[in-house]
Input
Amino acid sequence: MSNKPPTAIIGGSGVKSIIKGDEKTIGTPYGPSPPITHSLVAGRSVYFLPRHGEHHQYPPHMVNYRANIWALRQLGVERIIATNAVGGINQELTPGDIVIPVDIIDMTKSRKGTFYDKAPVTHIDVSQPYCPTLRRLLIDTARMKKVNVHENIAMAATEGPRYETPAEIRMLRTVGCGIVGMTGAPEAFLARELQLCYASISFVSNMAAGLQRQLSAREVEEKGRETSNILNSVIVEAVANIPERHNDCPCSNALVQAQLVSNAAEVEQLAR
Ligand code: HPA
Output
């Protein structure tokens, strides 16, 4: 077993486990995680967590995001690469393109979005919601593989499970979103609350509502299958090249400035 800290891959719609290995479910204060697969990739310990459950049984608004992120932290994971199927709002995008989002607008409504419901009152900074080091690595890896990758795009995370209306998409474009998916939030924020590095690799499965005649879940699934080889190869290569140190990213010490000084003792306990 590698002594480097493990990395996790969260597989979204259409993304089957990239790795084969032992599976285990982790109990958390929020309920059990789905079975998580463990293996070595280029000598590094890697976990794969299927976000929607092993049989894709949890729709986006019912995913237990807190259990998933907690379980990964419990396994010692320090970095997470999450995959998301998204609709393209930006008309420069084409289905099959890959986006490493730089920012996110949370439009979800019903989800448990924090680990900090009680004292210590905690306000994490999400000025850079995705780990800049992991993003750079994913972008450079995709470019090296001649993949059509877009990097200056913000994601809208919608509640689902229905797709959006054309008017909602026009609104999201107006506020600066280039892609839309149902699973970006609160996952990214929960990872930051536990001081884990997190970046998303999104694949455009369709153009968003109003930009193509109609939307279909089958189309999203099919595009996932079509894109999976390239997506997997970027992820595997990126995992193999993850730097050992957390250089200058806002993730691994996110709690330091997030809590009031009067809570300092509790902070110490929560921080790794
Ligand atoms: N909207 C929301 N989520 C999605 C879409 C979309 O168009 N495509 C894939 N996931």
Q: What stands out?
A: The chain has a mean pLDDT of 92.
